[in-house]
Amino acid sequence: MREIEGGVTATPGIKAAGVPCGIKEDSKSDLALIHSVIPCRAVGLFTTNKVKSASIKVSMKHLADGQAQAVIINSGNANAVTGKRGLEDAQEIAGLVALQLRIKTEDVLVASTGRIGIPLPIGKIAKGLKEIVGRLSEDGGHEAARAILTTDTFPKVAAVEVDLDGRPVVVGGMAKGAGMISPNMQAPLVTRSTGQATMLAFITTDCAIDEGLLRRALVWAVDRSFNAITVDGAQSTNDMVLILANGLAENQKIFQKDSNYQKFSEALAQVTTRLAKLIVKDGEGATKFVEVEVRGALNAQGAKLVAFSIANSNLVKAMLYGGDPNWGRIMAAIGSSGAQVEEARIEIYLGDLKLASGGCGMEFSPAKAASILREDEIKILVDLNLGREGMRVWTCDLTPEYVKLNA
Amino acid sequence: MREIEGGVTATPGIKAAGVPCGIKEDSKSDLALIHSVIPCRAVGLFTTNKVKSASIKVSMKHLADGQAQAVIINSGNANAVTGKRGLEDAQEIAGLVALQLRIKTEDVLVASTGRIGIPLPIGKIAKGLKEIVGRLSEDGGHEAARAILTTDTFPKVAAVEVDLDGRPVVVGGMAKGAGMISPNMQAPLVTRSTGQATMLAFITTDCAIDEGLLRRALVWAVDRSFNAITVDGAQSTNDMVLILANGLAENQKIFQKDSNYQKFSEALAQVTTRLAKLIVKDGEGATKFVEVEVRGALNAQGAKLVAFSIANSNLVKAMLYGGDPNWGRIMAAIGSSGAQVEEARIEIYLGDLKLASGGCGMEFSPAKAASILREDEIKILVDLNLGREGMRVWTCDLTPEYVKLNA
To answer: Which end of chain A is flanked by fewer CB atoms within 10 Å, N or C?
Structure first.
């Protein structure tokens, strides 16, 4: 497996484009289109927020047959809590894209991100659609990645190539994040634990793979990437990850969990992981990238509760911004997580520095702790010493800038 | 029922004092003592954090017999995650207080607030104890209220008097809060829902009341006051509410849920509510007092989930600081709360201004919204229109100052 240049258009048979259509006031790019030359196997994971945007609802419906050929994304307006009109708008956009690309309406997926509760400027979007179709290009991945941004400060793309029985298979993707980031996306009808963001990610691949295995690989990859990040613990109405697999690599189609499935899954996870990390690094106001690792939990749910309790604690995050090794706040977050823990067994590390063990603080060098906290990337490791389950979550610090950005 | 002056020493038979003993570096007052002339019926509610301070553990043990006569409180050090030594220290402090007051060690309760993980300076405290006993006074309530503060900017006291069959009965109290405030205190062995703070509150009364009813009244009053506030959603290892009832009012002892029980409960709730509001108003960095009311929930748990999801949302709280009526963030917090909701039924009000209804935003005057958001006290009302349960939570805005204070 090797990293390659590009985003969604790194994948053969995929074109993309991005244009400004006037949703954003400052004529920034706000409309993106992805198009595959042939219909794709397609899977989506969507926010578990009970309030879902119209675009989420329409995309879920259009994905019922497991097939798609294009994705239209607007930024600057979430088309959420917009009632019947919002649904009609999302459907109209899908219809217009289908008409211009001469594909089926049901093969067009729709995504939105931006302010909630304001009807889409459908006239502007319709105009933009005419323009964007003409701009579709095999080099359009970066342009599309820029068009989906909101408060993000840089576009986020990643791509890898992996050999399956000697044939090169590509996985490419793009994402946006910044605020309202703590996704917990699930496949429709798959109910599991809950979490939170607007984050959007779009993945393309030319791998030939069975739809059920594509879904399984995506769930696996998203659980250890997008579903394992949090900026502010706030779950969006619009979170969405889509994957389109057009099969043009002509590898022997993956039908079972064999070594090719394994290789493909790992390539996919590499792309989603790279994009997830970029989202955290670009979190609103963030100055630090923080990894929280929990080990020794009795069960997976307990590991997740503890990891997110630490990663979502304003007190822990403000401390990471300030550079004070006040590990008592980590201990308080562990104890209030809801997971089964025993104070006397908990070990807390900052980098390789042990801060607490056996229900007591350790003697440690304040200078060493301060130097670890000055790094751009900080690791907090918690060993609960009760069982064998673990969880790793990525987050950022909480800064005065975050509050100002959201005020 | 009428409000009266004073805090814990508003109650006849109660003396208190506060002194600096050197735990805090700047010779601020950091040791407080409450003493009743006779043993009291006593009940405590404690943090549900699985990591509990040594003072919590010792107080729980000493309350097993439902009796207490004194409370010793230190600020500046939480005596939490301090292992065996922390427990020995807390027990030693109780023993020293008992010795000097000539009461039973088991009748001394211990409370602490401050930094976690650092052993108590027991020598300094022992010296302070000798001094504080000599300062005990029937006017010492304010002095004691000052000695329990940490990042609080003002002392918090409240007292009321109520007539029970013609006899005046007093309820007086003091509290501290500021950060790590989202208490969810429960009586030991009473397991219910979970929540989060260090907040401490100490209530005294001269009411003659059965211990079981005293506990019931305290649980009722705390659930609608301290357990219904949040500053930062962070649950402390040290949260504690204690009530001491010395019976000196010589009212006919309350043995059943009659009208006197009702009057006493309401007096108690008035004191805890006043103290809880003062804690929110003094929340770290807070500039706004915010009431979040949820109506129409299918069940009480759902109402609580929605109310706290809104009140703990950094995005909602930053918006309240900034004064932008971006109600989509409230909708996102409702949908991700875990409670059963239906988007199309949700109504959101800011003050008396309806912002959203029927799954859509309303047309409203931005000037009116802006003027409501400029007030010091803001009310958010959410009607889920599904059932008859409700919950009211008090919180504050999230400000750059909060982050700086905790950095």
So the answer is: N
Mean pLDDT of A239-249: 97
Using the CB atoms, write b or e for B373-399: b if 16+ within 10 Å: beeeebbbbbbbbbeebbbebbbbbbb
**In the prediction, which pLDDT does B185 show?**
65
Cα A80 to Cα A86: distance, rounded to the nearest angstrom: 7
Task: Give residue B201's identity as a one-letter amino acid code.
Answer: A
Contact status, residue A236 vs residue A197, Cβ threshold 8 Å:
yes
Alpha carbon distance A156, A158 (integer Å): 7
Q: Supply the mean pLDDT for chain A.
A: 92
Give the pLDDT of residue A181: 67
Give which of A30, A280, A5 is closest to A141, Cα–Cα. A5
Quote the pLDDT of residue A182.
Answer: 63
CATH number at residue B246: 3.60.70.12
B187 has a pLDDT exceeding 60: no
Do A312 and A253 reside in the same domain of the chain? no
Cα of A153 vs its chain's centroid, Å: 16
Q: What is the ipTM of this complex?
A: 0.86
The alpha carbon of residue B373 and the mean position of all alpha carbons in its chain are separated, in whole angstroms, by 26
pTM, two decimal places:
0.89
Examine the domain organization and report whether B115 and B233 are in the same domain: yes
Question: Is some CB atom of chain B closer than 8 A to the CB atom of A48?
Answer: yes
Residue B400: which of A233, A329, A403 has the nearest Cβ? A403
Residues A230 and A311 in one domain: no
Strands A240-245 and A200-205: parallel
**Residues B107 and B187 occupy one common structural domain:** yes
* Boundary of a domain, candidates B258, B281, B304: B281
Q: Residue A111: pLDDT above 60?
A: yes
Tell whether B388 is within 8 A of chain A (Cβ).
Answer: no
Q: Which residue of A has its CA nearest to B343?
A: A51
- Domain-ending residue, one of A281, A303, A323: A281
So what's the pLDDT on residue B197?
A: 40
| Structure tokens given for B277 | 């509001």
Q: How many residues does chain B have?
A: 407
Same domain? For A341 and A211 the reply is no
Chain A touched by B179 (CB under 8 Å):
yes
C-alpha Rg value of chain A to the nearest Å: 22
Q: Distance between CA A55 and CA A58 in Å, rounded?
A: 5
Chain-chain contact of B403 with A406 (C-beta, under 8 angstroms): no
B309 has a pLDDT exceeding 50: yes
* C-alpha count within 13 angstroms, C-beta hemisphere, residue A183: 32
Over residues B55-97, the pLDDT tens digits come to 999 999 999 999 999 999 999 999 999 999 999 999 999 999 9
- Rounded to the nearest angstrom, the minimum Cα separation between B363 and chain A is 10
The answer to whether the Cβ–Cβ distance between A332 and B49 falls below 8 Å is yes
pLDDT in tens, A188-229: 543 332 223 478 999 999 999 999 999 999 999 999 999 999
